[in-house]
Specification:
By secondary structure, the protein is of the alpha/beta class. Helix content is about 20%, strand content about 30%. It has helices at about 5-10, 160-170, 205-215, 230-245, 265-270, 305-325, 375-380, and strands at about 20-25, 35-40, 50, 55, 65-75, 90, 105, 125-130, 140, 150, 175, 180-185, 190, 205, 220-230, 250-255, 270-275, 280, 290, 295-300, 330-335, 340, 345-355, 360-365, 380-385, 390-395, 400-404. Bound molecules: adenosine monophosphate and magnesium ion.
């Protein structure tokens, strides 16, 4: 049986990044940047004040107290024309352009014109007893970025703060990878719609919600196709519909095990091919990969936790590859196991809560690890990875964990 690593490599070898498109900046969040971004100039573009106060010449502040004549008023957004001479100051607001001649700013709170008196009209003079150093409370031109600096790398999934940076640089539009498109289906006669009352023997289709959300969360687009019944015809019908969507990936859950009504494998074989359908892992052994009518297909197990783990381990990396996302969205960290953990020798993914004690991440399993128990997944912050071949992890030892 394939190891997790072999299976993942085999899957990933079939995918490459989608082509690119240019989208309005506001739509670029969670999209993968397709170009390197360099600063086109210095930012901030001019020396400016870091505080509300008075721009002055540091050399004028050695006496105590100091009185300076206020010769100008510089609100944010203006371009000052004055040039400060000895003994002069200019009222200045945060972010406003420093006038010529000034090299520093005294905060208004440190002068006799304190905030209680501050109004729209500037005072004629200010008095204070404080030595100011050249450069104090000034944000010099180019402090944040210098012209030509590389600031964002191709392959980065854009975060809100990245959009702020791109806006600073004047990108109204930005070139990103096309979103990977995933056709998603569930399968099973027991599955009810989310709004249906429970009936004997039936459960609600939770996978199609958890997986659709995981797809969107990974920066891809989901085409939700609903639930196939446990018949050859129904499975064929829905897979044909999935193929007609010309998605980058068809993703199903359930029906790939060895049950009498598990038709997915058979239907894939009839109209495509199955590469493998089992991986040496827990949960999630029945995991299938192949193609259906020329479109790559991943069949996740039906149990909700197995489906989720299979998504994290195989589908998320696939979507990252398709989206051109080079960074990966999940962080793997070392954690210390609070208690002894038994394993069956398969590579295992266990749900745990992480508590930081004295700077060390301690992992505490979140209750019963049955692959149908969604609540223990909801309560978990991480999936602990118990390597293949390990039967017992002693209390206090360290393992890798994927932070969720
Ligand atoms: P199967 O792989 O079809 O044998 O399904 C394994 C288990 O997962 C069974 O207990 C199913 O009821 C459950 N299951 C399958 N699909 C879903 C789904 N979409 N939502 C919730 N549970 C499911
Ligand atoms: Mg089933």
């Amino acid at each position: 049986m394939l190891t997790v690593t072999e299976a993942r490599e085999r899957i990933l070898s079939h995918f490459k990044a989608t082509t690119t498109e240019t989208v309005p900046l506001i739509e670029a969040v969670n999209r993968t940047l397709a170009i390197d971004i360099l600063a086109d100039g210095d930012y901030p573009p001019f020396d400016n004040s870091a505080v509300d106060g008075f721009a002055l010449r540091a050399e004028d502040t050695s006496a105590s107290p100091v009185t300076l004549n206020v010769v100008a008023d510089i609100p944010a957004g203006s371009a000052p024309t004055v040039s400060l001479q000895a003994g002069q100051a200019a009222r200045i607001m945060t972010g406003a352009h420093l006038p010529n001649g000034a090299d520093s700013v005294i905060p208004v709170e440190d002068t006799d014109f304190n905030t209680r008196h501050a109004g729209t009209v500037a005072p004629k003079t200010i008095t204070f007893s404080k030595h100011i150093n050249a450069g104090e409370n000034v944000r010099p031109r180019g402090m944040d970025m210098r012209s030509g600096d590389p600031v964002l790398k191709q392959g980065r999934m854009l975060k809100p703060q990245d959009l702020g940076l791109l806006a600073t640089l004047g990108y109204a539009n930005v070139t990103v990878h096309k979103k990977a498109r995933v056709a998603l289906l569930s399968s099973g006669d027991e599955l009810l719609e989310v709004d249906a009352p429970l009936e004997p023997g039936k459960i609600r289709d939770s996978n199609s919600y958890a997986l659709a959300a995981a797809i969107v969360n990974a920066g891809a687009e989901v085409i939700r196709l609903g639930v196939a019944k446990d018949t050859r015809e129904s499975v064929t019908g829905l897979l044909d519909k999935a193929a007609s969507e010309k998605a980058d990936l068809i993703l199903s859950s359930a029906g790939v095990s060895v049950g009498a009504f598990d038709f997915i494998k058979e239907v894939i074989d009839a109209n495509g091919s199955m590469d493998f359908w089992r991986v040496n892992m827990r949960p999630g052994k029945p995991l299938a990969f192949g193609e259906y009518r020329g479109i790559p297909f991943i069949g996740l197990p039906g149990n909700p936790v197995s489906a989720f783990v299979g998504f994290e381990v195989f589908v998320r990396p696939t979507l990252e590859r398709l989206n051109g996302n080079m960074d990966g969205d999940r962080q793997t960290v070392r954690v210390r196991c609070e208690e002894e953990i038994e394993s069956d020798g398969r590579e295992s993914y266990l749900r745990a809560k992480i508590q930081v004690q004295n700077g060390i991440r301690i992992a505490i399993l979140t209750g019963h690890q049955g692959s149908g128990n969604l609540l223990s997944l909801v309560q978990a912050d991480a999936l602990l990875i118990i390597p293949a071949g390990v039967k017992c992890v002693p209390a206090g030892s360290e393992v890798d964990a994927i932070l969720l």
